[in-house]
Please model this.
Amino acid sequence: MSTQKSFAKGSTAPGPVPEGTIRLYSMRFCPFAQRARLVLQAKGIKHDVVNINLKEKPDWFLEKNPLGLVPTLETPSGQVIYESPITCEYLDEVYPDNKLLPSDPFEKAQQKMMLECYSKVVPYFYKIPMGKRNGEDVSALEGELKEKLAKLNEHLKTKKSNYMAGDSITMIDYMMWPWFERMEGMQLKHFLDGTPELKKWTERMLEDPAVKETMHAPDTHIGFYTSYIAGKADYDYGL
Model:
């Protein structure tokens, strides 16, 4: 089964995970869950999706994952895996076709180090829009984000590659993409104006089939984000 509308507290649990597939517990607008959806699509893995209301989480979901996090994977045998980098690496190991992580240990370590550095960038995508909405002075945060994006731009320029780790999309590209998809909706897209190589990277990513399959239009992101910051997150926005 795959669902669009989210399951909330009091809902009936979905049936068992069918043999030959894997289940993703997700939320339509969660960038961390989108990481797993990108990998599932890119690798052509047979799967179903169960969306979760993250404010009113079903008891049956908390029994599977007491932390209540998405993405969460569940196998037909009942194994449960969560945390976005872990779920994505698991998928790449268990389903060997269309490998996204390099086999070379050093190259794999480089991707993990880059992801660790990128994790320090992610908070800015939230702090700046929220700060602006609250009337705060976010100029220092904006300067820091520009600096961090400039480093990514320099990485691409120095590497002379189309993507973060070479001339084809690999895991690190999918791990970074969801927040760039949301830049327009968060009114941050102008930060790419001073990073031409990074801007080209976003344009290439938009042509990727997995990105096209998992993305939302900017207006849809804006609609959800508006409901979220108003304290009334509409997880079924647009359905």
The chain has two domains: 22-99, 105-207. Residues 105 and 162 are 22 Å apart (CA to CA).
